Amino acid sequence: xxxxxxxxxSGFKEARIFPILDLTIGKSHGKRDxxxxxxxxxxxxxxxxxxxxxxxxxxxxxxxxxADETVLYIxxxxxxxxxxxxxxxxxxxFFEFQFKQLDEIMDSVAExxxxxxxxxxxxxxxxxxxxxxxxxxxxxxxxxxxxxxxLADHERIIIDLRGHIKSFTxxxxxxxxxxxxxxxxxxxxxxxxxxxSHLTK
Length: 201
Ligand SMILES: [Fe+2]
Known about the structure:
The protein is mainly α. It has helices spanning 52-82, 88-115, 124-130, 143-170, 175-196, and strands at residues 2-6, 12-17, 37-43.
């Protein structure tokens, strides 16, 4: 979260920032809320017709999505590395195709957060705190097991994104981010279809 201090009228001269980890919605942050970091840098005032509280609300949702995308990226990497069985090479390449898509998604979500004037979470610790997903503990390395788990994660993300499309426009007046997560949801729906189509039952 960024709290901007007014400068000399032409823009903002400094931003007091506390770690993005504290973006977690609805949690009590206790004393951490008061640990402000002052960045001495020129930050231009953002004049896009969106008030700061609305940009902040959208950034909180996108930060959680970025955490989900990053955890899913690592889980898909694990599937690419660990998969074993008669269909090894086919699934090894398939998981590679999907983690490359997730890499592009992560970048686009982080850059959307920057576009609306916020900093994206960028530490593994913050991702684990923000994500809705659970890291895989499975010892099994068969492709069907990986596919089922990854499919469930994509579906979790799709449900989350779908739930924010309307509120981004209605509550935060951010049609751009609403359109952005609609496209993102469609991409996940296609990725989920590809996973689902590999299931044998
Ligand atoms: Fe590889």
